[in-house]
Specification:
The protein has 253 residues and is of the alpha+beta class. It has 2 domains: 159 residues, Electron Transport, Fmn-binding Protein, Chain A (Pnp Oxidase, Chain A); 42 residues. It is built from 5 helices and 12 strands. The longest helix has 42 residues.
């Protein structure tokens, strides 16, 4: 359906009363349409109980609701006030307004009191034009998260932190990461320095085992040299003590 292209949208709730009957409903199709005078338009289904009461009372209010009212909004937007009392069923409360007969939804983040100026038919919905006669922005509600509705998965959800707050936190995280990277680099540098120092130390100092091995080899060479010299001496002595060979006398023929 084409209208899903325009979701998610801010979730507002409309409250209306007439001759002792009250009702609340979710209005996603709501938009400001004029600054001077301040006016807004709300699209209500032609079969809507809220449309019937607004047409009769000529007044209504629109509330910006917080994320904490998710379950209540889901219930109020899915049921009809002709069958059940939504206020009682979903634990919703209304309070008196200041400038009009329109009730205000308790627990909302902000309210706009409206007086009906015109109602136009628009297919299966009617466009209710309301002039905003009073607005309220309670200080105690400041900073709370408003709610959006996504038709695709029929789910309500809250807005995230504002861009400035997120940017500041991202900057803090970036600084923390940079400092951590610097510390890690320093530690790696220290480890490399220790490795180099160890190498230099190993070059300068010969281990005791190597010294012993070197000394043993020198002794072995000395012994080998002595043995070789002794063998040479014995050989010479044998040669000098051996009798000279006798010359055979020639026989006279």
């Amino acid at each position: 359906m084409f209208y899903r292209l325009f979701y998610p949208r801010q979730t507002c709730m409309l409250a209306v009363s007439h001759e002792g009957k009250s009702n609340v409903t979710v209005v996603d199709w709501m938009t400001p349409v004029s600054v001077k005078p301040p006016m807004l338009a709300v699209a209500l289904n032609n079969k809507s109980y809220s449309l019937e009461l607004a047409s009769a009372s000529k007044t209504f209010s629109v509330s910006v609701v917080p994320e904490s009212m998710k379950e209540k909004a889901l219930g109020a937007g899915s049921a009809t006030g002709r069958v059940i009392d939504k206020l009682e069923e979903y634990g919703l409360k209304l309070k008196n307004s200041k400038a009009s007969r329109a009730p205000l939804l308790d627990g909302a983040l902000a309210w706009a009191e409206c007086e009906v100026q015109a109602i136009f038919n628009a297919g299966d919905h009617s466009i209710v034009i309301g002039e905003v006669v009073e607005t309220h922005f309670p200080d105690e509600e400041a900073g709370k998260t408003p709610m959006l509705f996504n038709w695709g998965n029929k789910n309500y959800f809250g807005l995230g932190r504002d861009w400035k707050e997120k940017k500041e936190e991202d900057m803090r995280l970036m600084v923390v990461k940079q400092e951590a990277a610097k510390e890690e680099k320093k530690e790696e540098g220290k480890k490399e320095e220790k490795k180099e120092e160890k190498k230099e130390s190993e070059k300068k100092e010969t281990p005791a085992s190597e010294k012993k091995e070197s000394s043993d080899k020198k002794e072995e060479k000395k012994e080998e040299k002595k043995d070789s010299e002794k063998k040479e001496e014995n050989k010479k002595e044998k040669e000098s003590s051996a009798p000279a060979p006798k010359e055979e006398s020639k026989k006279s023929s």
